[in-house]
Amino acid sequence: MIDCQMCSKWLDEPEMRVAELEHSYVLLNRDQFFPGYCFVFTKTHVTELFHLDQDTRAAIIEEVNAVAAALFAVFQPTKINYELLGNMVPHMHWHIVPRFTTDPLWPRPIWSDPHEPLMLSPDDYRFRIQAIAELLSRR
């Protein structure tokens, strides 16, 4: 789709790529204020779950679940948050966010207060991406 930042995100941010799954892409969020924060977004431009046929919808939910399970295994958070909004970027995408009781916004939503983005070194991004990708490759 023209002018959809999610449609081009996989090509625009190759250094953040975690995995290409059957129906979706997984990228590590550049801002790692919440360690492990990833995006899961559909390969095709779609805005609503009900726009998908039942089998595709179920498969995408399983992919989201696999990413959450991998994040849980790597980061051992207190909770995983799942955000599927699409108001600002109307392309189906989930924010999968490991949460810890020690994070400054706990237990509030990640959007409740602004924060300074936490940028990592290229090696630290690669380490996180590889750890998550390794678990996803076993699914």
Query: Could you name the ranges where pLDDT drops below 50 across 5 or more consecutive residues?
Result: none
Biggest sheet: strand arrangement: 1-2-3-5-4
Q: Proportion of β residues?
A: 15-25%
Order of helices and strands: HEEEHEEH
CATH architecture: 2-Layer Sandwich
State the CATH superfamily name: HIT-like
Domain count: 1
**Structural class, please?**
alpha+beta
Q: How many strand units?
A: 5
Number of helices: 3
CATH topology: HIT family, subunit A
The CATH top-level class label: Alpha Beta
Largest sheet: number of strands, sense, barrel closure: 5 strands, antiparallel
Features:
139 residues, globular, alpha+beta, 33% helix, 3 helices, HIT family, subunit A, 5-stranded antiparallel β-sheet, 19% strand
Topology:
Elements (H helix, E strand, L loop, with lengths): L4 H8 L4 E4 L3 E5 L9 E5 L11 H22 L3 E6 L8 E7 L22 H16 L2
Antiparallel strand pairs: 1-2, 2-3, 3-5, 4-5
Helix pairs in contact: 2-3
What this model shows, in words?
- A hairpin with an 8-residue loop joins strand 4 (79-84) and strand 5 (93-99).
- The chain has helices at 5-12, 54-75, 122-137; strands at 17-20, 24-28, 38-42, 79-84, 93-99.
- With 139 residues, it is an alpha+beta fold.
- The model has no long low-confidence stretch (mean pLDDT 96).
- It has a single domain, classed as HIT-like (HIT family, subunit A, 2-Layer Sandwich), CATH 3.30.428.
